[in-house]
Amino acid sequence: MPRMLDVSDEVRAEIGDDEADRLLAGAHAPDTYDCTSCRTNGDSTREATSTVLFVGDETAVLAFAHARCIPSQVVPVAEEQLLGAVRSISQSQHSTPPSGAPAPAPVPVPAAVQPQPQPIVPTTGAPAILGITCGLVLRGDTGHAALVIEPTGPVGRPGDVSGQDQFLSLLTDHGFQHVTGVEQPPAQMPGWSVLMAMGRLHAILHPTATGGSAAWWQAHQPLQVTETWRFAAGRQNAVTVYAAPAGTIGRQPREDLLRQALDRAAGQGMLVAASLPLAGT
User: DSSP letters of 218-249?
Assistant: First the structure.
């Protein structure tokens, strides 16, 4: 029976056209599944379902998720974490599932090459790296899940030799907006999202010209977040992303100090922000 599956171009490229076509035709795809994002039951015969390929250094596992939770894509995962998931699936298959609960059905796929993060162009010297900090930012009495992005050095446009830092102007071109106060919620940015999978932070996704999505920032290894941060992001189904030029925020050991640094940057006109929907949990 055909399935209501979405197999993205990047997933198809990794598993091959033949395997992708077999999945769409109903082979190797379970009727029901546990969503790899929200962990609730899904039915690929009745609702739109995404194929999500988790890849390690030598192992790859194809999983399924509600299309409303997470788009079809390739997600890099630490090899140890992926092997642990494979062991859990194997143990589940050798035990009797509760009544009505589907048994996991992994699909064998070839090992995949991990996608690389989008390069950041430095104005001078070594390539700039995007540092990222997770924290809760209070607006009134409510804590909002936030990501603060700051490059390690000046960032210029490709081909620009002026040596000027153009990090903020690059972001405003994408839709980020200058903020004058952290108390005010930033506007939502269409097509962008923050990817969470298996309880860890994986990437910030941006729209592509072909209508899909790609990683604008991507963790080298999935980042663990606090339960409080994850709960706030899930409750609001949004993450506030702040960005500032190199040397503006710095590494702050406490959330109150992080807030002070954000307020200071906003007052100096050196802070941009956007509210991005949460993809996954």
Answer: EEEEEEE--HHHHHHHHHHTEEEEEE--TTSS
